[in-house]
Design a protein that fits this description.
Length: about 300
């Protein structure tokens, strides 16, 4: 087996994928990269080859990817022209380094022309660029993270009991970040078929009304869902200190995403352009993804355990 490279092992997604794949593949066949040298140290101590990799520097990337056969390229956590440029750097560097296959973490809704979600522009650009190479590939189109929606619910609990957004009656097949990362690690380790797109989704389609209902049932909360239009959604995020663009100041923001991204994403959900549902996670990993109720119960059990331990 050729060597497998995983990018961004300093992040939540990348670190989970890295730990997971170490249980599947001999360490001598792994290369972990990050622009954060300190984050590489724990993996070095476990005997994994690590390399500094900054997406801004193609020459550094080419050296970081040299000798690798498969590249798990985890998308960068922001939107816009800068991300497209850096993704292009990574793909061109992989080709120059002799990588034979790229696995890319994209988004559901990519490929739907009518979909106006800002985030899908970067992902479609990256997918199309991968397809212009002669490399083998897999595209993993991840659905909305459960964690983001649970955070929205918890924020509502703490700020008046109303969850306001522009999703309307649209649905998403919510999935945990760890289930996405596990699917990515499994594909990097050889699961699935080359040159195929996989929709990485949760087990059920969930509307905002469903989210609030399940959250209330599990936690005993009294949150209500209020549907608002896109203009009101922008004003809501403004009031929470969320910047409109990725160039804004996130120091006081509740969410690490700009409102241009989230409002357009919510509109796409409302128009049913992000509602894909598949069994691909179980197909690739051999296990069912966690449901929204599972996640709320995990959080509630953790809180009960913490209270018991401190009483």
């Amino acid at each position: 087996m050729g060597k497998i490279i995983i990018t961004g092992v300093d992040g939540n997604f990348g670190s989970y994928a890295a730990v997971s794949i170490m249980n599947k593949i001999n360490k001598k066949n792994l290369i972990f990269t990050s622009p954060n040298k300190a984050a590489l140290v724990p993996f070095q101590e476990l005997g994994v080859e690590t390399r500094y990799a900054d997406y801004n520097n193609e020459q550094d990337l080419k050296e970081a990817f040299r000798g690798g056969d498969t590249l798990l390229m985890i998308s960068l956590p922001f939107v816009g022209e800068k991300r497209r440029k850096l993704h292009k750097n990574a793909i061109c560097s992989a080709v120059a380094a002799g990588v034979k296959k790229i696995i890319y973490t994209s988004t559901v809704g990519a490929g739907i022309r009518e979909n106006g979600a800002l985030v899908k522009v970067d992902h479609e650009f990256t997918e199309n660029l991968i397809w212009t190479t002669d490399l083998k590939w897999n595209i993993l189109r991840d659905s909305q993270y459960v964690e983001a929606m649970v955070t929205a619910y918890e924020h509502a609990v703490e700020s008046g009991g109303v969850l306001s957004n522009n999703h309307g009656e649209g649905t998403m097949s919510l999935i945990t970040r760890n289930d996405c990362a596990e699917a990515a690690a499994c594909v990097a380790a050889g699961a699935g078929e080359d040159n195929k797109i996989y929709d990485i989704t949760g087990p059920e389609q969930i509307s905002m009304a469903d989210l609030v209902r399940i959250g209330n049932e599990v936690t005993g909360g009294n949150v209500i869902f209020r549907n608002i239009d896109d203009d009101a959604m922008f004003k809501h995020f403004d009031s929470m200190g969320v910047p409109r663009t990725t160039a804004g100041d996130f120091s006081n923001a509740v969410f690490p995403f700009c409102s241009d991204d989230m409002v357009s994403y919510g509109k796409a959900i409302r128009l049913d352009q992000m509602s894909m549902l598949s069994d691909h996670v179980e197909l690739l990993t051999g296990r069912k993804p966690k449901s929204l109720k599972d996640v709320f119960e995990d959080i509630d059990n953790h809180r009960v355990g913490h209270r018991t331990a401190t009483e």
